[in-house]
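thought: user wants a sequence for this fold. calling inverse folding tool.
action: design(structure=
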């Protein structure tokens, strides 16, 4: 069974859409084991070669460092922040630049291979 959720903020102000969407995804997780994800369009003011990764990480020793090492094997991390999520998870958000869009999927695949880590 699937579930689809979305948010439209009509007041023109900035909102924590990533946090709100993450809450929705967690609310839908009881619907089954299918994969989940979300996209946020507009308002990020990223350059053409920049990407913003949102990665859910279980707060266990060295997992965040493994994620960073995996990213830095491909590109430099330009900026980063940790956002508290549910239970013992954080959302690690980082901005990266890639030479080509074709590098994005292999990078995400490598990050997803790390135990207790999910690219959102």
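)
observation: tool returned 120 residues.
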């Amino acid at each position: 069974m699937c579930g689809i959720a979305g948010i439209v903020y009509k007041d023109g102000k900035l909102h924590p859409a990533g946090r709100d969407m993450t809450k929705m995804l967690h609310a839908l997780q009881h619907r089954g084991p299918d994969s989940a994800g979300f996209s946020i369009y507009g308002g990020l003011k990223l350059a053409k070669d920049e990407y913003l990764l949102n990665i859910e990480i279980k707060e266990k020793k060295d997992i965040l460092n493994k994620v960073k090492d995996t990213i830095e094997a491909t590109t430099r991390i330009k900026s980063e922040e940790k956002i508290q999520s549910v239970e013992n998870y954080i959302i690690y958000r980082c901005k990266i630049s890639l030479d080509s869009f074709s590098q994005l999927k292999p990078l995400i695949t490598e990050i997803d291979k790390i135990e207790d880590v999910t690219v959102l």
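thought: summarizing for user.
answer: Here is the designed sequence. The chain is about 25% helix and 25% strand.
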